[in-house]
Amino acid sequence: MRTRVRDGVFAAGDSMIGVEQWCLLVLLAGLVAQDTTAGPQIRFCEPIVAGPIAGWIVGDVSIGVLFGIAAQLIWSGTMPAGMAAFFDANVGIVVAVAIGTLVGGSAAAFLWMVPVGYLGSALTVVERRVNGRIVDSVSSDDSPRVIGVRHMSGWVVSGARGALTALLGLSIGVFVIPSITTVIDATVSPIVLWAAIFGTGGGIALGVTWRYGRGRAAVVGALATAAALLVGRYLS
Amino acid sequence: MTDTGPEGRLSERATIPTGVALRVIMRSGWIQATLHEGGMQNLGRLFVLVPVAKWLGLNRDGWNAFAQRHLSFFNSNPFVSPLGLGALARIEYDARTNEAATPDDMIGRFSTRLSTPLGAVGDELFWAAIRPQMSLLAVLVALFAGIWGAVVFVVGFSVYQYTIRWSLFRRGWELGTRVAEVLRDTKTKRLARYTGIAAAACAGAVFVALVVQMQTLVGDIVNATAVLVLCASAVTGFFVVRGRKSAAYALAVGLAWVGVVSIGVEVLSRFG
Predict the structure, then answer these.
(1) Which residue among A114, A131, A218 sits closest to B248, beta carbon to beta carbon?
(2) Fewer Cβ atoms within 10 Å of its own Cβ: the N or the C terminal residue of chain B?
(3) Partner-chain contact A49 B65, CB within 8 Å
């Protein structure tokens, strides 16, 4: 079954995401959670990459790119470092993009990644407790093979954490977000909402990198881009 | 790197086979699979160093002692961990030739002492400079070329991380217990600084590109409310992050501007 969107309005009563797409999204969320900290850390978990992949699964890459750009900007300074409980924007974006295709790329679907991200963060604490038990079960008498199996079971736990986060986020979001979208769209212009999201993202990007060059590098980058765009427009 | 075998350690230039080095570097991507409070990456370190133990040809007792040593506390930034792992591999290699020179508790003390600087240098380089730079470059490309932004991120970040992992492992192997020299030298700090400056330039470029491409992305923003909200949320986003508050908090403040500005514009239009 394919997504049915009428002018950005959710058509209630239909099953919007097919079973195979649900399975692929949950699998993707698991892999994204693993790549975030557990491994292999290629960083395909980043919103700018995971967003379009999720979009491709549900049949709308452009929503994946749009949400991915916004999330990558807003969380460009987030560090999943050490034992700090970091906000899980990566699994959040997978869920947000999937829900976003149901509501025509509404900003409300994008914002759904915030509670999902906090859920992922809370489950990370549980995951690390499970990891502690796995490590406690290891002894120096174990063979290298056993050590490998025990260690990689932590990787599986990490995937399960991501899959569970996505499953909960998708299950609740499918019911909640379409109704919220209807209310929000009737109250606020979607363009104004997106202006707030992208404005925040742009401000955060400048804030995160400000310490390098105290704004001089940012001004040079801005002027160079403006000049390049003007030249490009003049030539075309 | 040529394989002279563990016995070759008595020679002036100790070497580790390229295959062993590559296996350690590839495994280092999974060093955090069992990250936990207490030992942090201790099991991860042992898992990553298994190829070294196999190369050293340890017997059952040797392996048990090796596992015991490497189950002590270890923590580092995953991308710069090969520096510490290379040093540990070298210490193990040297211990095979001169056991008296490497006391049993040395690995534990060395790992604990190395953990904090490895984490600090790695976080500064990767999380504060390289990731923001690649993120913003990818966003810049995605704003004009869509999906290609994702390709730029994965390829660019991979080039950075695997080049750094490889060179740090080699340095760690060469220096052994003197590995702190790498953490003290200015090369890593210089790399972080130049990458950070490039990231800042990308941030400026992204801001201009966002304004230009907003119409393509979400529609025409040429109305007073949208422009005001964009500017206000950008300013608060900047200061919230500079004030070390979370990005989600900055987003909440940005969304609050939607309400404030919308109400303000409505009031002005009624009385204006």
Answers:
(1) A114
(2) C
(3) no
Q: Flag if A198 and B214 touch (Cβ within 8 Å).
A: yes
Under a CB-based contact definition with an 8 Å cutoff, are residues B191 and B107 in contact?
A: no
Are the C-beta atoms of B187 and B125 separated by less than 8 Å? no
CB contact under 8 A, B238 and A201: no
CA distances for B227 relative to A192, B223, B237, angstroms = 8, 6, 15
Is the distance from CB of A91 to CB of A127 less than 8 angstroms?
Answer: no
Within 10 A of A115 (CB to CB), how many other CB atoms are there? 17
Q: By C-alpha distance, which of B92, B87, B51 is closest to B69?
A: B92
Say yes or no: ipTM exceeds 0.85: yes
At residue B112, what is the residue type? Answer: T
What is the tens place of the pLDDT at every residue in B130-165?
A: 999 999 999 999 999 999 999 999 999 999 999 999
Is the separation of the CB atoms in B152 and B144 below 8 Å?
no
A137: tokens are: 């079960």
What's chain B's Rg over C-alpha atoms?
25
B206 neighbourhood in chain A, CB within 8 Å: 73, 202, 205
Please write the tens of the pLDDT for every residue from A138-166. 988 899 999 999 999 999 999 999 999 99
Give, for A6, the enclosing helix (H) or strand (E): strand A5-6
Distance of CA B253 to the CA centre of its chain: 29
Does the predicted model carry a pTM greater than 0.80? yes
- What six digits make up the tokens of A181? 């979208």
Closest CA relative to residue B153, chosen from A96, A151, A44: A44
**The token pair that represents A177 in the structure block:** 């977000």
Structural domain boundaries in chain A: 5-187, 189-236
